[in-house]
Amino acid sequence: IDTMIPLQSREIWKKHGVKKFEDADEFQSKFIQHVETTLARSLYNCDDLAAYQATSQSVRDNLVIDWNKSQQRQTARDSKRVYYLSLEFLMGRALDNALINSQDGTEEPGVQKRERIKGAIDQLGFKLEDVLEQEPDAALGNGGLGRLAACFIDSMATGDYPAWGYGLRYQYGIFAQKIIEGYQVETPDYWLNFTNPWEIERSEIQVPINFYGYVDRSGSESGDSTLSASKWIGGERVIAVPYDMPIPGFKTENVNNLRMWSARPTTEFDFAKFNSGDYKNSVEQQQRAESITAVLYPNDNFQEGKELRLKQQYFWCAASLHDIVRRFKKSKHSWEEFPNQVAIQLNDTHPTLAIVELQRILVDLEHLDWHKAWDIVTKTFAYTNHTVMQEALEKWPVGLFGHLLPRHLEIIYDINWFFLKFVESKFPRDVDLLSKVSIIEEASQERQIRMAFLAIVGSHKVNGVAELHSELIKTTIFQDFVKIYGPSKFTNVTNGITPRRWLKQANPKLAKLIGDTINDPQDDFLLNMSKLTELAKYAEDADFQTKWNDVKQFNKLRLADLIEKLYEGEDVINRDHIRNTLFDIQVKRIHEYKRQQMNIFGCIYRYLSIKKLLSEGVPINEVEKKYPRRVSIFGGKSAPGYYMAKLIIKLINSVSDVVNHDEEINNILKVVFIPDYNVSKAETIIPASDLSEHISTAGTEASGTSNMKFVMNGGLIIGTVDGANVEITREVGEDNIFLFGNLAENVDELRYQHQYHPKPLPEELEQVLQVVESGTFDGDFKPLVDSIRHHGDYYLVSDDFKSYVQTQSLVDDVYHKNKKEWLKKSILSVANVGFFSSDRCIQEYADEIWNVEPLNN
Ligand code: Z15
């Protein structure tokens, strides 16, 4: 059907054409229009929430105009597009980001667009800060993987890449965390409560998605071959409807698209059921459809293996692939051209079914020859691995899988058959190798599909997310594939973060100081971060150090306010001493491998040491010289079913209770747990850190990205030689980071020693564990203590504790006895953080993996 406006009518279109608001006055006009019509409210009835919604609608209007232009341009140029498939997009708030990104370089020097809108909102009787606070986080992710996807789409838009994100529009994002009597309690995050001004519903697009059923091969030419076109008769059908979110770039008119699918029932009605009088049942079955996109699975680095999760994955892959293929077909290229028009990046193995679905579309629906189809598929896909931890690697039992997706299971068997034939031709009679690399794992009671292996076989490139991690995958979990394909299929792209959100938005004061200092009033350094190196020459400048320290001071006060609010008025952080109180922060998902338990044991050790000196009669001001003022701040969610992580949260809160209320120690140590850590809280927390902790057992944290955020905000790191800490050390210099602990190469041996030659614990840790066992802190922490004492200390807390404690006292020395040195380290770190911009990552992906170019106007 032709949906275009006839030529003779287009003049009318042009006459009325929509215009962006360009200044404060035009913004106010739009704002009022939206209050009165979109919201149907008035100047007598306009609160902060209404102001937020009207502001967002106005800003969105501008984005949509650019969005339309960008999409038309991308179509007209017929350039290769990138599709970033991620089951998580941890976006946080959109409004401030859109305001910052609306800066286009055309404004007169010194007046940024955001400032003008702030002024306009002021005049209307609101405060921008309060208006921004009204927005709920779009929290459609768990942690690093989801936030990485959010940073990447920001950088793809900023770099003018024709790129779309595809995800799921969960009705419930990651749960909100409450702390009740020290324990985590989960409450649902119904984030769509007040309609979401940032999404555009596209009900006109409806993609049918099938599940279950059987394969009918009666019509196919060769009868029994699964390789030729087969007909899958689905047994259950739901409809996928997209919701689009405009993604603005910084200093560009390019606006990309994040397309999120939502599940709806079909309008087809089961008349058989209806006629048999089972009306209620057939309505209920319809309702089941919506449950597919109801809720985000709240696990980070852990696979749960539930049928609903597999359903989510297929629903999303099938809808996205259908959309991509439809767009490709409109461009009238031949199928061989597909990999020159389309690059699909798989964010972990969660979208691996997209590989199988494309093969199915090409063979079953488009009737391409199997091998021709497979050649297209493998040239299209690339796969990013984010972990080496066994419990996070996806495997699906063939029974469950084949029931839900019978045709896809056949296709996987065929893919595996050809793959193993290829292996056998390269390494004849190596049966051992065949079973090691088979996509179907035969060893366990039930056969399982190894999704990572399928992703490797179906992709042309596989990458890890930091140098150490990319080396580890080649030498451990994927070593046989390096032997089979050669090393060039495997590459590294070290993660990054967007400096727009994590510097400009989170830390406007620091961004301003940097801009003023390096004479960059238009914030070009946010695009070209190598400009930051100019800061190095001020590293020892006393005047500059003072300004730098003042910004940190401001941010620490801002965090103190947040903590006071969350602690319902309790004055946890003593503002009088904030200048010489070290803020030590560890915020991230709670996981044994990230070792928050080691951090809290360190706090206990410090507390005990202080108490010991006091009991020996040492006066408190003398004690303070040895243990200067420190606040240890924790935050993070545990997966609801992760017992040990929940116990760690309880221990932190119980220690906090004892330490914070012990008047004898005169506030020289505080322990704080910030409930419900999320993206918007991170924007307040991260800029306030003097020191942050990235202390995973070596070899377990693939990259980490909050380490980069802290450094970008002038915080120093205490960390292990793990993930991207390695490259951070290379970039900022080893004098500017506090590294400690065992190396990844020794972890196996240490674990072996724990198993077969257990040794007594180091005395520092022994002391701590005994106090924990004594019941000083409310709760039963036996399982936590036993995991170290009796169950092999898998995360090697006992091996690293001593060097951790020693390194902490080195930190104290520099911070308190040599503040100038500290500030120098802080400034030099920011000067050299440029490498960790996600703009650099996207450029690497574009050049080395996707083979796409930016689209310039
Ligand atoms: C997740 O957040 C990460 C890896 C995973 O396999 C899953 Cl399922 C979730 C994290 C890594 O733990 C972290 O080290 C990395 O920085 C992040 O992905 C982004 O690559």
UniProtKB/TrEMBL annotation:
Documented EC number(s): 2.4.1.1
Task: Give the matching InterPro entries.
Answer: Glycg_phsphrylas (IPR011833), Glyco_trans_35 (IPR000811), Pyridoxal_P_attach_site (IPR035090)
What is any one of the record's Gene Ontology cellular component terms? cytoplasm
Stored Gene3D superfamilies: Glycogen Phosphorylase B
Q: Which SUPFAM superfamilies match?
A: UDP-Glycosyltransferase/glycogen phosphorylase
Example GO BP: glycogen catabolic process
Q: Which GO terms describe its molecular function?
A: glycogen phosphorylase activity; pyridoxal phosphate binding
Residues modified as N6-(pyridoxal phosphate)lysine are 709
Does the keyword section mention Magnesium? no
Enzymatic reactions:
[(1->4)-alpha-D-glucosyl](n) + phosphate = [(1->4)-alpha-D-glucosyl](n-1) + alpha-D-glucose 1-phosphate
Keyword terms, alphabetized: Carbohydrate metabolism, Glycosyltransferase, Pyridoxal phosphate, Transferase
Q: Which PROSITE patterns match?
A: PHOSPHORYLASE
Needed cofactors: pyridoxal 5'-phosphate
Function in brief = Allosteric enzyme that catalyzes the rate-limiting step in glycogen catabolism, the phosphorolytic cleavage of glycogen to produce glucose-1-phosphate, and plays a central role in maintaining cellular and organismal glucose homeostasis.
Query: So what family is this one in?
Result: Belongs to the glycogen phosphorylase family.
Query: What name does the UniProt record give this protein?
Result: Alpha-1,4 glucan phosphorylase
Query: What species was this sequence derived from?
Result: Kluyveromyces dobzhanskii CBS 2104
Taxon lineage:
Eukaryota, Fungi, Dikarya, Ascomycota, Saccharomycotina
